[in-house]
Design a protein that fits this description.
The chain has helices at residues 2-13, 18-23, 120-137, and strands at residues 33-38, 42-46, 49-54, 57-60, 65-69, 77-85, 90-98, 104-107, 169-172, 175-176, 183-185, 192-194, 199-207, 211-217, 222-232, 239-240, 245-249, 260-266, 269-271. Strands 11, 12, 13, 14, 15, 16, 17, 18 and 19 form a 9-stranded antiparallel beta sheet that branches. The radius of gyration is 23 Å and the shape is globular. Helix content is 13%, strand content 36%. It starts with a helix and ends in a 16-residue tail after the last strand. By secondary structure, it is mainly β. The protein has a domain at 104-282: Glucose Permease (Domain IIA) (Distorted Sandwich), CATH 2.70.70.10.
Amino acid sequence: MKAILLIALISSYLNLPPNHAQNKKTSLGTVGKSVSVAQGEVARWAGNCLRCSLEKRAWSAVNGTCYYPVDMDMKPGSYTISRRTTGGKLETATLQVMLKACTQEDLKNFPKKEYINVSPQNQARAAKEAAVINPIISYKATVRPAVFDLPIGKPANPLPKGEGNFGACRTFDGQPRDRHTGQDYPVGMGEPALSAGNGRVLLAANHFYSGNSVYIDHGNGLISEYFHLKSYSVKPNQTVTKGQKIGLVGETGRVTGPHLHFGVRWHGACINPGFLLIDPSDIPQVK
């Protein structure tokens, strides 16, 4: 009886109904940890981490920190994340994914008409190229150890402010197309494109939509992408170092002008690369 009266008094003091106070009776020391991020962003859980998981996917920590990349199309809602510490302790938390509004970008009077009314031959070419690319950028249960640290290196030096069009919903002359998977940077024609970190070149080829393209594996499931290059100077399986020149900025593929398209896939998630260019301490963390 005394316990019930005490709960009622606490409820009155906090302006809560008695049943709410009873539902929260386990709050002392047992409230779950959580972190909130928007679609296309990254969350982190720092402190002596060995192994990390998000739903049914799992991977190794990077320098003792668990990072949880959220795909730009991940359904908003609550997800369970976990980590295994160096001491063997298993901990769980809630990842709250918030909706990020899709910026509308309509490119009118697009100059390269072959990308507006795509011929059957080019459709077949693009499908063939996608069949090669998709396995490269997809989540894999087993990956090479990380050979990078955060923040990663800039893909150009100097790197101007991005166009802010990551994840944009695009139309070309009014015709809807897939969302934009990277961040565009207004780097001039012929300027060097640089590897964002140590790694191994997975693919360097000319593609219909992305033009001259380079994909680099940095370990731990992190893949960086460089599109629309004037030319590339690396080849598949070549080892590269952070800041190494891998090609020249151009305007090949479906573009309106020269720029550097820089994208990243981490454990299969398409995320805003800008989150990997900032100090890790600025990335939202589990608390």
